[in-house]
Amino acid sequence: MATHAWLFSYIKQTLHTMLYMINCKPDYKKILQDRQILELYSHIDDAEKAPWAKHGMEHILRVVKNAKTLCKLLKIDKNTTFLTIIASILHDAGATEGKKNHREKSAIFAQNYLKNAHFNETDAQIIVEAIRHHASANPPLGLVHILLVCADKLDCSQSRILPSGYGVVGMRQSQFIKTIKLKMKSEKLFILFKVSPHFDKTEFTNYYFTKLLYEALDQLSKQKRVNCEIVFKR
Ligand SMILES: [Fe+2]
Ligand SMILES: [Fe+2]
Fold this sequence. Notes:
Layout: H1 2-21, H2 28-32, H3 35-47, H4 57-73, H5 78-90, H6 102-116, H7 121-132, H8 143-153, E1 177-185, E2 188-195, H9 201-206, H10 208-224, E3 227-233
């Protein structure tokens, strides 16, 4: 009986590896619908004692959307796009007990999750390191890392912030950002912030989080040799 179980597991693993090698990689939508992932992110917004911003599924879906848009506009290759989307899905999975050490916890969770999902070691390592260092794109660890940081930091409009964040200098400006859209025009990447009349650009651009976004976009423009411009429109 034990031999049968071992044989079944061996065949299953070999099939997964073969499918992965011929590029039948797991569908990221299946990971997004995975009960374990849904369950985990459903508790994350409740875990933070004084949450200023969301880290649950709504945030993840917006980061995935940002990652997909960036990859499409910059004509990023299929594999890098796939790895960036998976990193986006898993990047805050370790925030189940609040934001403290959540990057390291998310990296450990991702490492185990990707192993169980039969990702190859090289791909898993790229995703895990991008997640471990998603606070900043400096120093850059590669395109997946830079894209993840950009996609994450671009989620800073009014849908991200919670009422407890309205009193935090810098962050409170997010409540006046209605939408953030990405557009490619004449080989230039435009990040268009639609803001309300109360928006204070100086306060927002001096906020440490915004500086991290600018830094990540700067790394992206260096890597992809594309100019990025941030535009604020009332
Ligand atoms: Fe995070
Ligand atoms: Fe995040």
